[in-house]
Hints:
By secondary structure, the protein is an alpha+beta fold. 33% of the residues lie in helices and 13% in strands. It has a five-stranded antiparallel sheet with strand order 3-4-5-7-6, with no helix packed on it. Strands 8-9-10 form a three-stranded antiparallel sheet. Magnesium ion is lined by residues 67, 181-182, 193-194. Adenosine-5'-diphosphate binds at residues 64-65, 67-69, 72, 82, 114, 130, 132-133, 137, 181-182, 193-194.
Amino acid sequence: DRTVSMSGSTSTDSDRTPVRVDSQDSQVSDTETVTECHRWPRQNSLSMREWDIPHDELKFDKLIGIGRFGKVFRGYWHGDVAIKVLKYLKDEKTLEHFKMEVATFRKTRHENLILFMGACMNPDHLAIVTSLSKGDTLYTHIHLRKDKFNMNKTTIIAQQISQGMGYLHAKGIVHKDLKSKNIFLENGKVVITDFGLFSVTKLCFENRKPDSIGIPPGWLCYLAPEIVRNLHAHQSHDEELPFSKASDVYAFGTVWYELLCGEWPFKTQPPEAIIWQVGKGMKQPLANLQASRDVKDILMLCWSFRAGERPDFIRLLNLLEKLPKKRLARSPSHPIHLSRSAES
Ligand code: ADP
Ligand code: MG
């Protein structure tokens, strides 16, 4: 039986149906399956090998940054790449989980998603290899460089995020960690990273100090009420937070807010206060946000307390498309500085 359920890693509660993984790979002979099963989940034995990058083929260059997953290096493998070396608990279950995630990544081919190139499956050097983004993240633009995007640019960015996210959701993949740090802007093009990796990273939470609530800074404001309300339960290895397509939409709402306001919602409030408010359905007030009704409506829809009331990305694309577009005319009556965007 080659049918497996990938529900734990890639799909929502509502679409927790078993899926067939790569029926074209079904021609694996029994002998092959037996010899391979020590390295790969049986159903993926042949196709997974294509994505396995031997550790000694990877050239490591400088460290780019350290995130929740572990270290990210600039590297070289048939060109410039980003190598994400995962820190994880070295147990069989996690390794299997990781392999399932990789089976998911290779299904992704979209302009607005980072190019997944392969993975290093050596248990001592678990790593994901993707194309190297030459641009800056939305986080860097908004929070570090304090760039201001005009409404047209903001809408175009949001549309591209929605395109990429709509594609992921159509493939049954829940991002689980959509945030401005995981969205790159390359010459005006949006590139989303780190989709579906969260299940692997949650194991890192186990290293947290018992007295801290173990919440990385800047993470809470992306979490939908149903997730915030479950945070206390997130103690054991086996307990999954209820991420879903709708919780991705909530996180998109927060990115939309960052683009509009240049800051995070609930800024400067301690985690306990945010948890209490969001869990009760309270939202960041928009009184100081100078934007049209339609723009604020999108925000409120994405931040709906009930997951079922949040729009999907197809509807969001529709709503974004309907926003009035200001003409970027550069006639004497429209001085250039008024239409200058962060990147122009
Ligand atoms: P986070 O997303 O929380 O910043 P990560 O571990 O994902 O943590 O990333 C660590 C650092 O590496 C960040 O500065 C991020 O921008 C950078 N980075 C991650 N992936 C890539 C990539 N594909 N290309 C270039 N830089 C990357
Ligand atoms: Mg990241």
